[in-house]
Amino acid sequence: MSFIARNLAERIATEIETDHATLLGGTKAADIRELLELRGILLFPRINLTDAEQLAFSRTLGELVEQGDKGLYKVTLDSKITPTAEYLRGTVLWHFDGFSDDVPARASILTARKTSPVGGQTEFANTYAAYDDLPAARKEALGKLRVVHTMAATQRDVFRDAPAAMQAVWASFPPKVQPLVWTHRSGRKSLLLGSSADWIEGMDKAEGQALLAELHEWTTQPRFVYRHEWHVGDMVIWDNCGTMHRVEAYPDDSGRMMHRTTLVGEEPIA
Ligand code: OGA
Ligand code: MN
Q1: Ion ligand 2 residues within 5 Å by Cβ
Q2: Which of 151, 175, 186, 201 is the one with CA 20 to 30 A from 6?
Q3: Separation of CA 74 and ligand 1 centre (Å)
Q4: Measured between alpha carbons, how far is 23 from 29 in angstroms, rounded to an integer?
Q5: Total-model pTM
Q6: Is 245 in the pocket of ligand 1 (CB under 6 A)?
Q7: pLDDT tens per residue across span 70-120
Q8: CB of 258 closer than 6 A to ligand 1?
Q9: For 209-262, what is each residue's pLDDT tens digit?
Q10: Domain residue extents for the chain
Q11: Is 247 in the pocket of ligand 1 (CB under 6 A)?
Q12: CATH of domain 3-263
C-alpha cells in the first residue's frame, strides 16, 4: 500500500501517488474526501483505472449520480456516443456543474481515455481561495447579493447565431437564483460564479454583468488556477462545490474521450 500526496500549486491541486488496491479498498476514502475539500483538485497521474474500477472507487467516496451507462458518462463531442454532447460545447466556459440544482453534485471524477492532439486541456479555479483573498469590505458587500443563473447564459457565447428554436429550448429551462457567496456548513465561504451567472438580482443588468465579469477575472487569476495537461489514464477529481472548471476548445473529430463518474451532492447552497 502506498499513498503519497504532493501539492501542485499553493492554493489548489494535489497529486496523489497510490495504487489500485488502496483506491478500491476504501481505506483512504476519508482522507481523499478531506483532501479534496481542502485542495479543490486531486490528480492521480496515469493511474489507469478501468471503467469498473473507476465506478468502484467512486462508490467508496459517496453515492453516484445516475448518468450515462450505469453511472459512467462519456464526455465526448460525438453525439452518436453521447446524445447530450451538444451541451458539452458550453464546457469551454468557466462553470460548475448543475447550476439549477439546490444541492449541486459533490464532485466529479474524470479519467482520460483519449486526449486531443490540440486543445482539450482542463483548467480549474479554487473559488474558496478567491473568496478568502477579497478585502473584508468587499466580502461584506458581496455577501448580500443574489445571482440569477440561466441555461441561455451557458450557451449563447458558444452558439453565437443560435436560431430562435434553439433559444426557445434554452429559455425553457427555468432560471435559478443562487447566492453569490456560498456559506458552507464548514463555515468556509466560496464564490458561486460560472457561465450560468446571467445577472444580479435587483441590479441594473449591465452593471451586474460588469460585476460578474470582474469577479470571474479575479477568481481565474493564475494563483487560484490549476491547468491539467492530460495523459491517457490520468484521473482527476474536482470538488464541484469549491471550484469552477473549463476545457480548452478541441476539434470535433479529435476523438477526445473522458469517462466521468459523479458523486451526489450533500449540501444545499446557502
Ligand atoms: C464536465 C466538464 C471538462 C472536460 O464533464 O462537466 O466540464 O475537460 N468536462 O471535459
Ligand atoms: Mn463541467
Answers
A1: 91, 97
A2: 186
A3: 10
A4: 7
A5: 0.97
A6: yes
A7: 999 999 999 999 999 998 999 999 999 999 999 999 999 999 999 999 999
A8: yes
A9: 999 999 999 999 999 999 999 999 999 999 999 999 999 999 999 999 999 999
A10: 3-263
A11: yes
A12: 3.60.130.10
